[in-house]
Specification:
505 residues; 14% strand; alpha/beta; 3-stranded antiparallel sheet; 18 helices
Amino acid sequence: MPGIRVLGENHEQILTSDALEFVAKLHRAHAARRDELIARRRQRGTLDFLPETADVRAGDWQVAEAPEPLRDRRVEITGPTERKMAINALNSGAKVWLADLEDANTPHWDNVIQGQVNLYDAARETIEYTSPEGKHYALKGGPYPTVVVRPRGWHLDERHLEIDGKPAVGALVDFGLHFFHNASLGRPYYYLPKMEHHLEARLWNDVFTLAQQELGVPHGTIRATVLIETIPAAFQMDEILHELRDHASGLNAGRWDYLFSIIKYFRDAGADFVLPDRNSVTMTAPFMRAYTELLVQTCHKRGAFAMGGMAAFIPNRRDPEVTENALKKVREDKSREAGDGFDGSWVAHPDLVPVCREIFDGVLGDRPNQLGKQRPEVSVTAADLLNIKALGGKATRAGVESAVDVGVRYLVSWLSGNGAAAIHNLMEDAATAEISRSQLWQWINNKVVLEDGTQVTAELVRDVLARTRAELSGPHADVAAELFEQVTLSDDFVDFLTLPAYERI
């Protein structure tokens, strides 16, 4: 095929000539604009609601009415597309499975392609798996969750597929292959991550429009839920929905990446924007409350669904105390979201599906969602979204040690091919390592003094890193420690650690 090269192992079921030509058409039409929009992200300035889009925010418009499979989303389970975990998610009893090709997945070529195979089989309800130990996994008879696929963010390329001499855009590979193989079965639904500007949503809308035209799929069949997980996007929720209004389903409060984005955006903005230990930043912090309440209000005003964030706590079937603590925290989190008007929320483990469902059942009753809860009393200003200082709190030595420990442990998992890692009874994805390394970078460069009077320095972090490395074993420990040091202590802040990490796999 002219201009198309597969540099990884081929897979005849997924990488058909027609599928590759389809992905190439999307890439050739949109890659240049993607490059321009990524370059635009480097322009950091004062954040505020955009004056040039005031008419969009003031306008009387709504997104397209939701199709039946997306009207009730009270509990969504998230996770990678690894075959066994996919089957468990489909058998979980959740309303939606977020099939994650992004932060819970590592872009090893085998993962990229096998994820598509698993989604292909899941869409046809033929997926099954037998483990090396002989345990068989199969679908139990349904009803099954609606599958919503999360492709990679705009910033990532796919080096194993070249189009006209350049790596293909990872987001277009993930979306394009899935849509090409499964759109004819209906329900081509997607979660869109990491956007920072409504023009990036416009690009997705143009991708959807072209994809539907090419395959003869009616316009508006695709539905997308956008993760509001960057601080610039928090100021453009209306605009993002407006750009995607024929294809929009809702917005999601992507809390961990949102914290990472705040740290990254204001990393050198001074003491008013320095966050304390990660574990002390809860969803009740004033700036996080402003963000979630604005999201619910914006969504329901526009007829879109407001989806709550991840409950990262995971039960341990061998440890009742851990399980009891996890369930308590999840109940508190989901009760707050249901009370605020969210239409549903995320869990990371099948055992938490009944807990989340029970909380939302108690609020929803027979209703499928809370679109009628308009929240007119909510009034959020730019200052509210940026009021980091009001949180208070301190950085601690335990916080430094935890950031290094969790960040390196996650990278060990990521480099080995597992992007969803259970670490200290939490289900972590790439946002975990991003928060860890960016927070340390911010503390070092803002000369933060810990509670015990010690200043956070590169030397302190290297000392903690050396002790952490000594506790780890396995083939990826050295590379993980080296990579963590690189993205944490470099003078130049790396936008996403998965970019240099991708070069190590």
